[in-house]
Design the sequence.
């Protein structure tokens, strides 16, 4: 039996890709190897006790440790050694680009998952201070980690590009989807009442410039109005979302803005004519994998991590150049009949 430690901040509080990765990984480990002891460390926020995700960690082999010290977020980076040694942790896994600084010399083996280096590849899309913090944590974690996990070959390539000294310690383990996505993609889930009955295209993800929602709107504008479908947008956003809403109004597009629903997005993928996800860059691109496993046709970006794992199972476009042309021609003819996705799963 092993005693394993995990940084569980994202698992408890994050609703997007990092949180999904942490929750799915922890759930899969527990299901496959319940004989081990899993110690999950997270800051104890005011809303922690009422957080509905607390229930996900109720298991005899799983121990959630909420740090209620003042400055708990800082201790998460600087001072976890006493907690980890107290719980006799043998292996500590930093699930989101970070390992506590004081684990060096503690005798605890360390694993670091790196999701992406977009703050280095696309620096202008991140505030200056955030870039400095992310770079410090990533460099520090890479220097300490005994093994490094990259969630795609694309991420591994970027890691080795910036940090060639780690190439013998890094391996690719693709990000998993939640278990319900591995059910029969043609077995319909319980459909939520707010899912449109008419055909629609779907976008899933935070609204930020690199995810290229503007590119989708420009593509829709280029289509004759008779060939347009409503676009359902599921995701959060700030200024970029405001700008996209205004573009939709100015161009007369039918945009349906939805908050992140509770539970699985699988019914939304199953109801969609296609997922459109022409992101400029991703560490992995979870919506593409979820859509493919749900039997939903996908349009996504070539030369990215999404193309890496979807391959011939998706329509690949150049989001910077030919996206509108491809969207407005062969793509539309292909999707109006919602073709059957391949019976052989891409992964």
Sequence:
């Amino acid at each position: 039996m092993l005693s394993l430690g995990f940084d569980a901040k994202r698992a408890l509080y994050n609703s997007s890709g990092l949180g999904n990765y942490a929750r799915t990984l922890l759930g899969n480990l527990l299901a496959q190897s319940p004989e081990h002891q899993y110690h999950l460390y997270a800051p104890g926020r005011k809303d922690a006790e009422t957080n509905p995700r607390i229930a996900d960690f109720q298991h005899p082999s799983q121990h959630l440790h909420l740090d209620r010290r003042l400055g708990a977020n800082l201790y998460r980076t600087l001072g976890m050694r006493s907690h980890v040694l107290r719980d006799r942790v043998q292996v500590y896994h930093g699930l989101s680009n970070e390992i506590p600084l004081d684990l060096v010399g503690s005798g605890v083996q360390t694993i670091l998952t790196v999701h992406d280096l977009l703050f280095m590849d696309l620096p202008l899309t991140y505030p200056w201070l955030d870039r400095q913090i992310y770079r410090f944590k990533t460099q520090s974690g890479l220097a300490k980690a005994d093994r490094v996990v990259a969630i795609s070959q694309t991420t591994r390539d970027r890691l080795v590009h910036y940090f060639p000294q780690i190439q013998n310690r890094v391996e690719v383990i693709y990000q998993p989807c939640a278990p319900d996505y591995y059910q029969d993609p043609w077995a319909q889930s319980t459909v939520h009442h707010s899912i449109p009955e008419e055909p629609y295209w779907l976008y899933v993800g935070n609204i930020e410039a690199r995810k290229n929602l503007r590119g989708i709107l420009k593509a829709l504008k280029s289509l004759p109005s008779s060939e347009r479908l409503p676009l359902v947008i599921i995701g959060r956003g700030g200024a970029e979302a405001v700008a996209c809403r205004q573009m939709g109004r100015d161009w007369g597009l039918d945009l349906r803005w939805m908050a992140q629903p509770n539970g699985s997005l699988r019914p939304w993928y199953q109801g969609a004519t296609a997922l459109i996800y022409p992101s400029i860059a991703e560490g992995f691109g979870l919506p593409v994998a979820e859509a493919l496993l749900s039997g939903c046709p996908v349009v996504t970006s070539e030369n990215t991590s999404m193309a890496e794992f979807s391959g011939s199972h998706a329509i690949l476009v150049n989001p910077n150049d030919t996206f509108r042309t491809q969207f407005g021609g062969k793509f539309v003819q292909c999707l109006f009949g919602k073709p059957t996705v391949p019976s052989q799963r891409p992964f």
